[in-house]
Amino acid sequence: MVYILLTALFLILATFFFTKLLKSNLNLGLYNSRREPTLPPVEKAWPLVGAIYMLIKDPLNLIKKNYQKHGSVFTIKVLGQNVTMLIGPEVSSHFYTAPESELSLAVLLDKLVVSMFGQNVAYGGPAEIRRQQFQFLKKGLSPQKLRYYVGQTLEEAQDYLSKWQDCGTVDLMHELQCLITLTCARCMFGYNVRENLSEDVSSLICELGGGLSPISILWPNFPIPAHYRRDRAKAKLNDIFSNIINSRKSSLWSEEDLLQTLIESVYTDGKYNTNEQVVGIATAILFASKHSAGMTAVWTAAYLLQSKAYFSKVLEEQKELLHRHGSKIDFDILGEMDVLHRCIKEAIRLGSTAIITARYCRKAFTVTTKEGKEYMVPKGHIVATPPTIANRLDYVYKDPERYDPDRYLSIEEKEMASRPFSNVSFGGGRHLCPGEAFAYINLKTIWSYLLRNFELELASSFPEGKWNGKEKLLVRYKRRKLSI
Ligand code: HEM
């Protein structure tokens, strides 16, 4: 009996060690059979509930902690769904370049887009309609149109800022978000904006954006107050924009704005955009502009006003341009504002408005980290990358947390930061933001006008850490003409 037991024990141990040996040989490549793909490390979390609490409360902190613990590739579980994070240029190339059939944005966004902008608008409709709508948008943001938008933006900014007293204190968070909404709306809806839009639209767009949290990406109709507010705002915006579209259609004049482009554009099957589509696309564009360019303008203010050195550099540049061109601001003159451009670029790098960009994985793929580890990301995972963290990696940027617009002048950093997917403020690859050039002309026009006409000084502390758009940025101002 003892003999039988000993033999059995020996056989079990022998099998165990043989399997171990075989596995290690396979890993060393001593056998020719295929290696088992390694899955990304999974962050332990409560079953079912997973990381949902942290994801809602502080998504960036959750991602940062896991990046420090696991490195550039890891999976977190959110209500049973695997979300695999890819952080850094080495592991995000496929994320940005894969076709829709492999990594799909539409699968993730369709319900969310419908909930915010209606049916058959961008990701809320079939791929072919979306492709053509992006072409219409491209036409509406062509260099020729951008030239026209500079003048529109300037007029709107002058008008808005004329309401400021000669001196005082303002909350630039509120002021710039309203101003950006109005200038973008003016470029999109032309003169009709005056009759129909008020600062109210800015808060409605804010409410619409309240329904854009990580939880909304996963469950756009989850019964939370933010989603109810979003639906109310959507209905109100729909009324406002429908009035504008109807009055434009019934009038005899035509404009050079984006609205006109959307009304006149024809799909390949000969159809025009319906009123609902024009409203949806216009709201989406206004939302993208307000949400991203608005916050970027505020971050630029915070960083510039805090950094005395860069603030004087942008003033010097404006003086020099005043000397050469007088008070004129146009598309070509904006092109000469290199210092201001760098200051905005650096504010966008640090204050990136896209917390997480995500896709649904339809086909498994592998990534190799910079340390040479290979991971397989399985079909069915949500794959995500957070630009705010990816833009602050210390092996890409020297002293990455520092606001240093001149870093783009250093050959070494310029070379590093211009490598694919090293600066993903505007995304990259297939879904690269089509509004980048528009955002820059909008921001540069507004900022050059502010710098030329006001003395500005930070009156509240610099917003360290996260900033969700509700805090104030108090600034003391005094009206004056910048002298040469
Ligand atoms: C500073 C301002 C802006 C920033 C930082 C920004 C950032 C981004 C980012 C990171 C993406 C990629 C999202 C992804 O990969 O999933 C994106 C996409 C997009 N952006 Fe922007 N954006 C800005 C302004 C604008 C403006 C002004 C417009 C419109 C006029 C716009 C329209 C879009 C559209 C339509 C897409 C989707 C492109 C696609 O899926 O192919 N953005 N933006």
Concise overview:
The protein has 484 residues and is α+β, with helices and mostly antiparallel strands.
Secondary structure layout plus pairing:
Blueprint: H1 2-27, H2 52-57, H3 59-70, E1 73-78, E2 81-86, H4 89-97, E3 103-104, H5 106-117, H6 127-140, H7 143-161, E4 167-171, H8 172-189, H9 192-196, H10 200-210, H11 214-218, H12 225-250, H13 258-264, H14 275-306, H15 308-325, H16 331-335, H17 338-350, E5 357-361, E6 365-368, E7 374-377, E8 382-385, H18 387-390, H19 411-417, H20 436-453, E9 454-458, E10 474-479
Parallel strand pairs: 2-8
Antiparallel strand pairs: 1-2, 3-5, 4-10, 5-8, 6-7, 9-10
Helix pairs in contact: 6-13, 7-8, 7-20, 8-14, 10-12, 10-14, 12-14, 13-14, 14-17, 14-20, 15-17
Protoporphyrin IX containing FE is lined by residues 105, 285, 288-289, 292-293, 296, 348, 353-354, 357, 387, 425-427, 431, 433-435, 438-439.
Cofactor: heme
Protein name: Sterol 14-demethylase
Organism: Carex littledalei
Total number of helices: 20
Radius of gyration: 26 Å
Bound small molecules, deduplicated: protoporphyrin IX containing FE
Distance N terminus to C terminus? Answer: 104 Å
Total count of strands: 10
Mean pLDDT: 86
Strand residues, percent? 5-15%
Indicate the low-confidence ranges by residue numbers. Answer: 1-33
Order of helices and strands: HHHEEHEHHHEHHHHHHHHHHEEEEHHHEE
Tell me the overall shape. Answer: globular
| Approximate helicity band | 55-70%
Give a quick account of the main beta sheet: strands, pairing sense, barrel closure.
5 strands, mixed
* Strand order of the biggest β-sheet: 1-2-8-5-3
Question: Structural class from helices and strands?
Answer: alpha+beta
